[in-house]
Amino acid sequence: MALKLACAFATSESSHEHARIAEELGYERAWFYDSPALYPDVWVQLCRAADRTKRISLGTGVLVPHLRHPMVTAAAIATLVSAAGQDRVVVGIGSGFTARVSMGQRPLTWRFVAEYMVALRGLLRGEDVEWEGAMTRMLQWDGYGAKRPIDVPFVVAAGGPKGAAIAKELGQGVFGVFEPQAGFDWSVVLLFGTVLDKGESPDSARAMAAAGHGGSVLLHYFLEHHMLDQIPGGEVWAHAYDNVPANKRHLAMHDGHLVGVNAQDAPYITGDLLARNNMSMSRDAWRERLAALEAKGATEVAFQPAGPDIPRELEAFAKMMQG
Fold first, then answer.
1. Which residues belong to any copy of the Luciferase-like domain (predicted)?
2. Beta strands in the chain (DSSP E)
């Protein structure tokens, strides 16, 4: 299996320690989520991880342009480059599906994402860049930021043709969820779930705690894409939020997002749901799933652990993938 082994973290106060563990287990890259309504600041945690690790690549999975002026992001990238070294830094960027929806906003337009990427990469090269009608440039002297030009790879989180086009034009790769984007030399697939112990049932307490977050994400994904009829009980689940005021429903739905299962979702997250959607599986089933993803064009899998024992999840997934 030629797939690169990566992990992704719902960025927590312990993510820097989990990145250290992942490095020891052979993971090649650690992606950190950028959703400030849900997790600590991504750049602070990445720099903490840089201080605890020596080899593993570190990146945003993925940063959201509207949260920061491009100069702020350029300075953050420069800080991480100073801490980890340029060859260990990668920047994932997207339209902000989770980060924006969790704050009651729609994802950004791909035109804005492209404009932001052009400005950001220009700043990192040390160029004069126009943004919001004014010229700007990174002015940090030696000792106050990494020297320009700063050349780090960009991966674009794209689920459709517009995002894929931006990835091909401005990025070095693409970042997807559940399935890969074909046609890229670098195609990352984000996966949720757990590797079952021998003889363990998908509805065991341990498996549910470790993989349940993936079931919630699946329900939310099908809701956003108007496909709840494809999930048994999906329409009934959506009505569980009817008692929440419409202007606050996004807050309730994102409570515990990618960390655990909230009270509204819990009755609908079952071992059967997780098993049927390739999240709670045996070692052999996982390897079959990864082989299928590789055949579809995936070059890297980013496994996101959750639950009370993240080191166990990281170790089990690494051992499964490494054979």
1. 17-201
2. 4-9, 29-32, 57-63, 89-93, 129-131, 134-136, 154-157, 173-177, 187-192, 194-195, 280-281, 300-304
